[in-house]
Design a protein that fits this description.
Layout lengths: L2 E7 L2 E9 L1 H18 L7 E5 L6 E5 L2 E5 H6 L3 H16 L17 H13 L3 H6 L5 H9 L3 H17 L5 H9 L13 H5 L4 H14 L7 H18 L2 H7 L7 H13 L3 H14 L4 H13 L3 H14 L4 H14 L2 H17 L4 H13 L3 H14 L3 H14 L5 H18 L1
GO molecular function: metal ion binding; metalloendopeptidase activity
Family: Belongs to the peptidase M48 family.
Cofactor: Zn(2+)
């Protein structure tokens, strides 16, 4: 399910959000794998997430996490473009450019550490007022301390990123084409620049050097239909959920019966909402890809949001059988079971959500559902633990600390839940000191 997790500040909602979606994240892993292998990095140790922001930006969050704005992905035309962005950001990680910036985050542990890191992303995305509300500091200082790169670092990342692309057989000219999207922005007023330019200095010398590198490695490029396919799925689904559904229906040829086009139209009709048309397109998509877990997951989402809970549970159960280790699908299954709300379904929901958390503890919506499942099982202590972690991940450290303190009074001292609550308190105290 496409999960949009909002950061909240008292009195206002932020425009930034983190998008969690199993299909899109799988596509990003497929696109990242050859680059990571070329860099000598385990692809399983690298996460790529999407921030729901229309501006064009990408940055490294920590030593294993790359963040990309949805606006940048929707502006890219081919898989190699997105792979160029990932290669460049990975080069910042392998080049050790984060060491001094991450010093201010040392000591944060467990799930709560992600909340501190994501809070800094608010500033990097250009929302200085929101960042101040999160006790991170002003936009300019957050960018300078956490995400700003020197020209020397950019040159190093350019060279390394191009090498990774060449080793993986990815067209190196794609990186030049991505940089061309930002050409001329350094002459703009800072307030009009995309945040990428403010954190990644772009100069004419840099562009000339990049063209030289691309020309030197151009003979190593080869076609990769799988990368093209997964890019089309990720970009198509992202656009279908974020853009006006009528725009999606105009843009996608009604005669196009490809799996990506069917998915886009299903999402668009679901958002209008026209459930019957959405499900008709899902049936056509299911006929084309009967063993695709992400098709079943999307079907489950449409049914769940259309309040057809029993059918949603069946679709999610099928998705789980096809991808039993996918945490976001497990979380969706748990959510559908909670919606049925019987004693049996609530027990099954708790089991599914606990499995989801064990594989991916950084999904706030899953944590919200997990808290509900614990509460229905009359386990108030663990409900408070899950709630504390949810608020910590979304950067609301004061509220997280309240629930963590409550949890520590309800869960046996030294138990895993008690230790998780303690981690949240530690991170909340660190946020106050900053």
């Amino acid at each position: 399910m496409l999960l949009v997790v909002l950061w909240a500040i008292p009195g206002r909602a932020l425009t930034l959000s983190l998008i969690r979606d199993a299909e899109i994240e799988h596509a990003l892993r497929e696109l990242t794998r050859p680059i990571a292998n070329a860099a000598g990095v385990s692809s399983g140790a690298l996460d790529v997430y999407i921030i729901n922001d229309s501006s064009m930006n990408a940055f490294v969050l920590d030593g294993q996490t790359v963040m990309i704005h949805s606006g940048l992905i929707l502006r890219l035309d081919r898989a190699e473009h997105l792979q160029a962005v990932i290669a460049h950001e990975l080069a910042h990680i392998t080049g050790g450019h984060l060491t001094r910036r991450m010093a201010n985050l040392r000591g944060a542990r467990g799930v709560a550490a992600m909340g501190l890191l994501l809070s800094t992303a608010v500033a990097a995305g250009g929302n200085g007022q929101a960042a101040a509300g999160l006790a991170i500091g002003t936009q300019s200082s957050a960018q300078r301390v956490f995400f700003g790169h020197t020209r020397a670092e950019e040159a190093s990342a350019d060279q390394a990123g191009i090498r990774y692309m060449a080793r993986a057989g990815i067209d190196p000219h794609a990186m030049v084409e991505v940089l061309d999207l930002f050409r001329g922005q350094e002459a703009l007023n800072v307030g009009r620049q995309d945040p990428y330019v403010r954190t990644h200095p772009l100069t004419s010398e840099r562009l000339r050097a990049m063209r030289g590198y691309a020309a030197a490695y151009a003979d190593r490029a080869r076609d990769d239909p799988q990368a093209d396919y997964w890019f089309a799925r990720a970009r198509g689904k992202l656009g279908a959920f974020l853009q006006n559904p009528r725009y999606t229906l105009r843009r996608v040829d009604a005669r196009d019966d490809s799996s990506v086009a069917l998915m886009q139209r299903a999402v668009a009709y679901h958002r209008m909402p026209d459930t019957e048309q959405a499900l008709a397109h899902m049936r056509a998509l299911e006929a084309k890809r009967p063993n695709d877990p992400y098709v079943q997951e999307l079907k489950g989402q449409i049914l769940l949001e259309s309040r057809r809970f029993g059918a949603a549970v069946q679709a999610y159960a099928r998705a789980v059988s096809l991808a039993p280790k996918e945490p976001l699908i497990l979380a969706g299954h748990g959510r559908a079971l909670l919606a049925v709300n019987t004693a049996s379904s609530n027990r099954q929901a708790l089991a599914a959500l606990e499995r989801a958390r064990s594989r991916d503890p950084y999904d706030p919506r899953m944590l919200r559902d997990l808290a509900v499942a614990y509460a229905r099982a009359d386990n108030k202590g663990m409900a408070s633990v899950a709630t504390a972690e949810r608020y910590a991940i979304t950067g609301q450290m004061d509220t997280a600390a309240i629930h963590a303190q409550r949890a520590m009074g309800l869960v046996p001292r030294g138990a895993p839940g008690w230790l998780r609550a303690q981690d949240v308190l530690s991170a909340a105290e660190k946020a106050k000191r900053r």
